[in-house]
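Sanity check

After download, print the first record. It should look like this:
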Amino acid sequence: MKSLFAGVFLFVFFTSCSKDYKPRKLDNVYIKEFNIDSTSIRSLVAIDSLTMYYAGSNGHVGFTNNGGDTWHTKQLKYQDSIFPNFRSMAYNVNTNLVYALSITNPALLYQYNFSDTLIVYEEKHPKVFYDSMKFFDEKHGIAMGDPTDGNCLSIILTNDGGNTWNKIPCEQIPKVEDGEAAFAASNTNIKVLGNTVWIVTGGIKSRVFKSIDLGITWNVYETPIIQGSSTEGIYSIDFFDEKNGIVIGGDYSKPEKNLKNKAITFDGGQTWALVADGQNPNYKSCVQYVPKTEGKEIFAVGKTGISYSNNGGLNWNEVNSSSYYSIQFVDKNTAWLTGNNKIGKLIIP
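Expected C-alpha coordinates:
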Protein backbone atom coordinates (compact mmCIF):
# COMPACT_ATOMS: atom_id res chain seq x y z
CA MET A 1 0.00 0.00 0.00
CA LYS A 2 2.86 2.38 0.83
CA SER A 3 4.34 1.93 -2.65
CA LEU A 4 1.01 2.68 -4.26
CA PHE A 5 0.68 5.99 -2.44
CA ALA A 6 4.29 6.80 -3.26
CA GLY A 7 3.52 6.16 -6.92
CA VAL A 8 0.49 8.42 -6.80
CA PHE A 9 2.55 11.16 -5.16
CA LEU A 10 5.30 10.93 -7.76
CA PHE A 11 2.74 10.96 -10.57
CA VAL A 12 1.10 14.12 -9.27
CA PHE A 13 4.45 15.73 -8.43
CA PHE A 14 6.00 15.19 -11.84
CA THR A 15 2.77 16.10 -13.63
CA SER A 16 2.47 19.38 -11.74
CA CYS A 17 6.16 20.20 -12.21
CA SER A 18 6.22 19.44 -15.92
CA LYS A 19 3.08 21.39 -16.85
CA ASP A 20 2.41 25.07 -16.43
CA TYR A 21 -1.38 24.87 -16.66
CA LYS A 22 -3.13 26.20 -13.58
CA PRO A 23 -6.39 24.35 -13.07
CA ARG A 24 -9.59 26.20 -12.35
CA LYS A 25 -11.44 26.14 -9.06
CA LEU A 26 -15.11 25.39 -9.71
CA ASP A 27 -17.82 25.37 -7.06
CA ASN A 28 -20.73 25.01 -9.47
CA VAL A 29 -21.46 24.73 -13.17
CA TYR A 30 -24.41 25.81 -15.28
CA ILE A 31 -26.34 23.20 -17.28
CA LYS A 32 -28.92 24.09 -19.90
CA GLU A 33 -31.41 21.25 -20.02
CA PHE A 34 -33.42 19.95 -22.96
CA ASN A 35 -36.41 17.64 -22.52
CA ILE A 36 -36.33 14.53 -24.74
CA ASP A 37 -39.54 12.59 -24.15
CA SER A 38 -39.94 8.84 -23.75
CA THR A 39 -36.33 7.74 -23.90
CA SER A 40 -33.46 6.99 -21.56
CA ILE A 41 -30.24 8.23 -23.18
CA ARG A 42 -26.90 6.69 -22.21
CA SER A 43 -24.86 7.27 -25.36
CA LEU A 44 -23.86 10.38 -27.26
CA VAL A 45 -21.36 11.71 -29.78
CA ALA A 46 -20.48 15.36 -29.20
CA ILE A 47 -19.04 17.09 -32.27
CA ASP A 48 -18.83 20.70 -31.12
CA SER A 49 -20.80 23.27 -29.14
CA LEU A 50 -23.55 23.24 -31.78
CA THR A 51 -23.73 19.62 -32.87
CA MET A 52 -24.31 16.38 -30.96
CA TYR A 53 -25.92 13.01 -31.71
CA TYR A 54 -27.65 10.70 -29.28
CA ALA A 55 -29.16 7.22 -29.21
CA GLY A 56 -31.52 6.01 -26.50
CA SER A 57 -34.12 3.47 -25.51
CA ASN A 58 -37.30 2.67 -27.47
CA GLY A 59 -35.42 3.04 -30.76
CA HIS A 60 -35.02 6.80 -30.36
CA VAL A 61 -32.12 8.54 -32.11
CA GLY A 62 -31.61 12.24 -32.74
CA PHE A 63 -29.32 15.21 -33.14
CA THR A 64 -29.04 18.96 -32.98
CA ASN A 65 -26.82 21.17 -35.13
CA ASN A 66 -27.75 24.52 -33.63
CA GLY A 67 -26.83 24.10 -29.99
CA GLY A 68 -30.14 22.54 -28.96
CA ASP A 69 -32.52 25.15 -30.36
CA THR A 70 -34.09 22.44 -32.52
CA TRP A 71 -33.84 18.64 -32.47
CA HIS A 72 -34.13 16.18 -35.34
CA THR A 73 -35.42 12.81 -34.13
CA LYS A 74 -36.59 9.47 -35.47
CA GLN A 75 -37.61 6.13 -34.03
CA LEU A 76 -36.00 3.00 -35.46
CA LYS A 77 -38.00 -0.21 -35.51
CA TYR A 78 -36.98 -3.80 -36.28
CA GLN A 79 -39.40 -6.18 -37.99
CA ASP A 80 -42.36 -3.94 -37.16
CA SER A 81 -42.44 -4.95 -33.49
CA ILE A 82 -39.04 -4.42 -31.84
CA PHE A 83 -37.84 -0.99 -30.74
CA PRO A 84 -34.09 -1.38 -30.04
CA ASN A 85 -32.62 -0.20 -26.77
CA PHE A 86 -29.48 1.72 -27.75
CA ARG A 87 -26.71 2.26 -25.20
CA SER A 88 -23.73 2.42 -27.58
CA MET A 89 -23.01 4.68 -30.51
CA ALA A 90 -20.12 6.06 -32.54
CA TYR A 91 -19.50 8.50 -35.37
CA ASN A 92 -17.24 8.16 -38.40
CA VAL A 93 -15.90 11.64 -39.13
CA ASN A 94 -14.74 10.57 -42.60
CA THR A 95 -18.19 9.48 -43.83
CA ASN A 96 -20.42 11.52 -41.49
CA LEU A 97 -22.28 8.31 -40.68
CA VAL A 98 -23.65 7.49 -37.24
CA TYR A 99 -23.65 4.01 -35.70
CA ALA A 100 -26.03 2.89 -32.95
CA LEU A 101 -25.81 -0.54 -31.32
CA SER A 102 -28.62 -2.12 -29.30
CA ILE A 103 -27.97 -4.10 -26.15
CA THR A 104 -29.98 -7.34 -26.16
CA ASN A 105 -31.15 -10.18 -28.39
CA PRO A 106 -31.12 -9.53 -31.27
CA ALA A 107 -28.17 -7.13 -31.11
CA LEU A 108 -28.59 -4.68 -33.97
CA LEU A 109 -25.94 -2.29 -35.27
CA TYR A 110 -27.45 0.49 -37.36
CA GLN A 111 -25.58 2.73 -39.80
CA TYR A 112 -27.51 5.88 -40.64
CA ASN A 113 -27.42 9.53 -41.67
CA PHE A 114 -31.09 10.31 -40.92
CA SER A 115 -32.11 9.83 -44.55
CA ASP A 116 -30.84 6.26 -45.05
CA THR A 117 -30.73 3.51 -42.42
CA LEU A 118 -28.97 0.17 -42.74
CA ILE A 119 -28.33 -2.72 -40.33
CA VAL A 120 -24.65 -3.62 -40.79
CA TYR A 121 -24.38 -6.24 -38.03
CA GLU A 122 -26.88 -8.52 -36.33
CA GLU A 123 -26.28 -11.10 -33.61
CA LYS A 124 -28.88 -13.44 -32.17
CA HIS A 125 -28.10 -15.20 -28.91
CA PRO A 126 -30.00 -15.47 -25.61
CA LYS A 127 -27.01 -14.02 -23.74
CA VAL A 128 -26.06 -11.24 -26.17
CA PHE A 129 -25.60 -7.85 -24.49
CA TYR A 130 -23.47 -5.10 -26.04
CA ASP A 131 -22.12 -2.32 -23.85
CA SER A 132 -19.98 0.18 -25.78
CA MET A 133 -18.43 1.09 -29.14
CA LYS A 134 -15.84 3.50 -30.57
CA PHE A 135 -13.94 4.28 -33.78
CA PHE A 136 -10.15 4.38 -33.76
CA ASP A 137 -9.99 6.24 -37.07
CA GLU A 138 -11.90 6.52 -40.35
CA LYS A 139 -11.54 2.76 -41.07
CA HIS A 140 -11.21 0.90 -37.78
CA GLY A 141 -13.85 0.53 -35.08
CA ILE A 142 -14.64 -1.69 -32.12
CA ALA A 143 -17.64 -2.69 -30.04
CA MET A 144 -17.71 -4.90 -26.96
CA GLY A 145 -20.27 -6.86 -25.03
CA ASP A 146 -20.77 -9.47 -22.35
CA PRO A 147 -19.76 -13.12 -22.84
CA THR A 148 -22.10 -15.32 -24.88
CA ASP A 149 -20.62 -18.70 -25.83
CA GLY A 150 -17.39 -19.48 -24.05
CA ASN A 151 -15.60 -17.48 -21.38
CA CYS A 152 -14.54 -14.36 -23.23
CA LEU A 153 -15.92 -10.90 -23.88
CA SER A 154 -17.80 -10.33 -27.12
CA ILE A 155 -15.70 -8.08 -29.37
CA ILE A 156 -16.60 -7.07 -32.92
CA LEU A 157 -14.31 -5.11 -35.23
CA THR A 158 -14.56 -3.22 -38.50
CA ASN A 159 -11.71 -2.27 -40.85
CA ASP A 160 -13.76 -0.73 -43.65
CA GLY A 161 -15.21 2.29 -41.93
CA GLY A 162 -18.18 0.49 -40.40
CA ASN A 163 -19.73 -1.17 -43.44
CA THR A 164 -18.98 -4.68 -42.16
CA TRP A 165 -18.27 -6.01 -38.65
CA ASN A 166 -16.84 -9.35 -37.54
CA LYS A 167 -16.68 -11.02 -34.14
CA ILE A 168 -13.18 -12.06 -33.17
CA PRO A 169 -12.58 -15.62 -31.91
CA CYS A 170 -12.69 -16.29 -28.20
CA GLU A 171 -9.17 -17.71 -28.17
CA GLN A 172 -7.78 -14.27 -29.09
CA ILE A 173 -9.13 -12.67 -25.91
CA PRO A 174 -8.08 -13.32 -22.29
CA LYS A 175 -10.61 -15.42 -20.41
CA VAL A 176 -13.12 -13.80 -18.10
CA GLU A 177 -14.14 -15.19 -14.73
CA ASP A 178 -17.66 -16.50 -14.18
CA GLY A 179 -19.77 -13.45 -13.39
CA GLU A 180 -17.35 -10.97 -15.00
CA ALA A 181 -18.99 -8.75 -17.63
CA ALA A 182 -19.45 -5.03 -18.31
CA PHE A 183 -21.92 -2.22 -17.68
CA ALA A 184 -23.80 -0.48 -20.50
CA ALA A 185 -24.14 2.65 -18.40
CA SER A 186 -22.62 5.47 -20.48
CA ASN A 187 -20.84 4.08 -23.58
CA THR A 188 -17.54 4.79 -21.81
CA ASN A 189 -16.27 1.39 -20.74
CA ILE A 190 -14.19 1.57 -23.93
CA LYS A 191 -11.44 4.15 -24.46
CA VAL A 192 -9.45 4.41 -27.69
CA LEU A 193 -6.29 6.44 -28.27
CA GLY A 194 -4.35 5.93 -31.48
CA ASN A 195 -4.21 2.17 -32.09
CA THR A 196 -4.70 1.43 -28.39
CA VAL A 197 -7.98 0.42 -26.76
CA TRP A 198 -8.85 -0.19 -23.12
CA ILE A 199 -11.98 -2.08 -22.00
CA VAL A 200 -13.15 -2.26 -18.38
CA THR A 201 -15.21 -4.97 -16.71
CA GLY A 202 -17.15 -5.41 -13.50
CA GLY A 203 -19.10 -7.91 -11.47
CA ILE A 204 -17.24 -10.78 -9.84
CA LYS A 205 -14.01 -9.35 -11.29
CA SER A 206 -13.25 -5.76 -12.30
CA ARG A 207 -10.29 -5.56 -14.64
CA VAL A 208 -8.80 -3.63 -17.56
CA PHE A 209 -8.33 -5.32 -20.94
CA LYS A 210 -5.85 -3.59 -23.26
CA SER A 211 -4.90 -3.95 -26.93
CA ILE A 212 -2.26 -1.89 -28.74
CA ASP A 213 -3.03 -3.24 -32.23
CA LEU A 214 -6.62 -2.13 -32.92
CA GLY A 215 -8.19 -4.93 -30.90
CA ILE A 216 -6.44 -7.94 -32.41
CA THR A 217 -4.38 -9.11 -29.42
CA TRP A 218 -5.02 -8.42 -25.75
CA ASN A 219 -3.58 -8.28 -22.25
CA VAL A 220 -5.57 -8.00 -19.02
CA TYR A 221 -4.69 -6.23 -15.75
CA GLU A 222 -6.07 -6.39 -12.21
CA THR A 223 -7.51 -3.35 -10.42
CA PRO A 224 -8.23 -2.50 -6.76
CA ILE A 225 -11.76 -1.31 -7.62
CA ILE A 226 -14.62 -2.79 -5.58
CA GLN A 227 -15.77 -6.09 -7.09
CA GLY A 228 -17.41 -9.36 -6.17
CA SER A 229 -21.12 -8.81 -6.89
CA SER A 230 -23.04 -8.21 -10.10
CA THR A 231 -23.51 -4.46 -9.52
CA GLU A 232 -19.95 -3.65 -8.44
CA GLY A 233 -16.96 -2.65 -10.52
CA ILE A 234 -15.66 -0.17 -13.08
CA TYR A 235 -18.31 1.65 -15.08
CA SER A 236 -16.17 4.13 -17.03
CA ILE A 237 -12.59 4.73 -18.17
CA ASP A 238 -10.74 7.66 -19.71
CA PHE A 239 -7.12 8.43 -20.59
CA PHE A 240 -5.42 11.80 -20.81
CA ASP A 241 -2.54 10.30 -22.81
CA GLU A 242 -1.09 6.83 -23.40
CA LYS A 243 0.20 6.58 -19.82
CA ASN A 244 -2.18 8.51 -17.58
CA GLY A 245 -5.75 7.39 -17.07
CA ILE A 246 -8.62 7.05 -14.62
CA VAL A 247 -11.42 4.58 -13.90
CA ILE A 248 -14.57 5.13 -11.85
CA GLY A 249 -17.62 3.18 -10.81
CA GLY A 250 -18.76 1.65 -7.56
CA ASP A 251 -21.98 -0.17 -6.73
CA TYR A 252 -25.07 0.85 -8.68
CA SER A 253 -27.33 -0.71 -6.05
CA LYS A 254 -25.64 1.28 -3.25
CA PRO A 255 -24.85 4.61 -4.97
CA GLU A 256 -23.91 6.48 -1.79
CA LYS A 257 -20.91 4.23 -1.11
CA ASN A 258 -17.55 5.80 -2.02
CA LEU A 259 -15.05 3.07 -1.10
CA LYS A 260 -12.73 1.62 -3.76
CA ASN A 261 -14.62 3.19 -6.65
CA LYS A 262 -11.97 5.34 -8.37
CA ALA A 263 -8.35 4.77 -9.35
CA ILE A 264 -5.63 6.22 -11.56
CA THR A 265 -2.77 4.77 -13.57
CA PHE A 266 0.45 6.29 -14.85
CA ASP A 267 1.78 3.25 -16.75
CA GLY A 268 -0.91 2.82 -19.40
CA GLY A 269 -3.23 0.71 -17.31
CA GLN A 270 -0.94 -2.05 -16.07
CA THR A 271 -1.19 -0.92 -12.43
CA TRP A 272 -3.79 1.17 -10.63
CA ALA A 273 -3.88 3.13 -7.37
CA LEU A 274 -7.03 4.09 -5.49
CA VAL A 275 -7.69 7.81 -5.07
CA ALA A 276 -10.10 9.73 -2.82
CA ASP A 277 -10.95 6.42 -1.15
CA GLY A 278 -13.78 6.87 1.31
CA GLN A 279 -14.34 10.39 -0.03
CA ASN A 280 -16.65 11.74 -2.68
CA PRO A 281 -17.52 11.19 -5.41
CA ASN A 282 -19.57 8.09 -4.74
CA TYR A 283 -20.98 5.87 -7.53
CA LYS A 284 -20.53 7.42 -10.99
CA SER A 285 -21.30 6.03 -14.43
CA CYS A 286 -18.98 8.24 -16.51
CA VAL A 287 -15.64 10.01 -16.10
CA GLN A 288 -13.98 12.40 -18.57
CA TYR A 289 -10.82 14.51 -18.71
CA VAL A 290 -11.43 18.12 -19.67
CA PRO A 291 -9.58 18.97 -22.92
CA LYS A 292 -6.49 21.19 -22.76
CA THR A 293 -6.18 21.06 -18.97
CA GLU A 294 -3.07 18.81 -18.95
CA GLY A 295 -4.87 15.91 -17.28
CA LYS A 296 -5.66 17.92 -14.16
CA GLU A 297 -9.36 18.74 -14.62
CA ILE A 298 -11.80 15.81 -14.60
CA PHE A 299 -15.59 15.53 -14.43
CA ALA A 300 -17.57 12.51 -13.24
CA VAL A 301 -21.34 12.15 -13.60
CA GLY A 302 -23.98 9.72 -12.41
CA LYS A 303 -27.36 9.49 -10.80
CA THR A 304 -25.80 10.97 -7.63
CA GLY A 305 -24.80 14.25 -9.32
CA ILE A 306 -21.78 15.83 -11.01
CA SER A 307 -18.33 16.02 -9.43
CA TYR A 308 -15.15 17.84 -10.43
CA SER A 309 -11.45 17.41 -9.70
CA ASN A 310 -8.71 19.92 -10.51
CA ASN A 311 -5.77 17.78 -9.39
CA GLY A 312 -5.96 14.67 -11.55
CA GLY A 313 -8.58 12.88 -9.46
CA LEU A 314 -7.01 13.08 -6.02
CA ASN A 315 -9.73 15.34 -4.59
CA TRP A 316 -13.23 16.21 -5.76
CA ASN A 317 -16.17 18.47 -5.05
CA GLU A 318 -19.76 18.35 -6.23
CA VAL A 319 -20.55 21.12 -8.71
CA ASN A 320 -24.12 20.18 -9.66
CA SER A 321 -26.70 17.85 -8.13
CA SER A 322 -28.39 16.93 -11.43
CA SER A 323 -28.56 13.25 -12.42
CA TYR A 324 -26.94 12.32 -15.73
CA TYR A 325 -25.55 9.10 -17.20
CA SER A 326 -22.84 10.37 -19.54
CA ILE A 327 -20.77 13.45 -20.38
CA GLN A 328 -18.54 14.38 -23.31
CA PHE A 329 -16.52 17.56 -23.64
CA VAL A 330 -16.04 19.36 -26.95
CA ASP A 331 -13.70 22.02 -25.60
CA LYS A 332 -12.38 23.29 -22.30
CA ASN A 333 -15.62 25.08 -21.42
CA THR A 334 -18.40 23.05 -23.04
CA ALA A 335 -19.77 19.53 -22.67
CA TRP A 336 -22.91 17.63 -23.63
CA LEU A 337 -24.64 15.29 -21.17
CA THR A 338 -27.35 12.65 -21.48
CA GLY A 339 -29.83 11.31 -18.96
CA ASN A 340 -33.33 9.98 -18.48
CA ASN A 341 -35.64 11.88 -20.85
CA LYS A 342 -33.15 14.72 -21.10
CA ILE A 343 -29.98 16.14 -22.60
CA GLY A 344 -27.84 18.76 -20.95
CA LYS A 345 -25.31 21.29 -22.16
CA LEU A 346 -22.71 22.18 -19.55
CA ILE A 347 -21.13 25.62 -19.85
CA ILE A 348 -18.15 26.84 -17.81
CA PRO A 349 -17.92 30.67 -17.98
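If your output differs, re-run the checksum step. Summary of this record's structure: The mean pLDDT is 95.
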